[in-house]
Amino acid sequence: MMKINQQKKYIHWIGVMLVLFIGFICLSGPDKNPHEFNEAIFSLTRVTIAPLIILVSYTYMVFLIFSKK
Fold first, then answer.
1. Which of 9, 23, 29, 65 could be disulfide-bonded to 53 (CB atoms 3.0-4.6 Å)?
2. Quick one: the chain helix, strand, coil %, rounded to 5?
3. Which of 5, 55, 60 has the alpha carbon at shortest distance from 27?
4. Closest by alpha carbon to 22, among 67, 44, 2, 52?
5. Cα–Cα distance between 58 and 32 in angstroms, integer?
6. Are 26 and 46 in contact (CB under 8 A)?
7. Is the torsion defined by CA of 56, 62, 67, 69 positive or negative?
8. Residue 1: what pLDDT?
9. pLDDT along the chain (69 residues), means of 10
10. What integer pLDDT is reported at residue 58 of this predicted model?
11. Confidence at residue 69, expressed as pLDDT on a 0 to 100 scale
12. Contact, 68 vs 6, CB < 8 A?
């Protein structure tokens, strides 16, 4: 039987993976013709918010790896 702290750690891992997945979905763009210029690649979500979500998720993952409890 797992300790309660270990169960919470796994729940946090699942949450971080979901947030990371959402960050990568925000980073990806629409499936359009690659030969046409599309200004959507410079949107605030794709340039600023999604990379911040990914960076924070990876930072929290490192924290979870090195935390003992």
1. 23
2. 75, 0, 25
3. 55
4. 52
5. 29
6. yes
7. positive
8. 56
9. 77 95 88 75 88 96 86
10. 96
11. 66
12. no
On whether the CB atoms of residues 56 and 15 are closer than 8 A, the answer is no
Q: How far apart are CA 47 and CA 69, in angstroms?
A: 35
Other CB atoms closer than 10 Å to residue 51's CB: what's the count? 13
pLDDT value for 20: 96
What the block records as the tokens of 47 is 């340039």
Cα–Cα dist 53/26, whole Å: 9
Q: In the structure encoding, which two tokens stand for residue 14, read together?
A: 């699942």
Rounded to whole angstroms, how far apart are CA atoms 30 and 46? 11
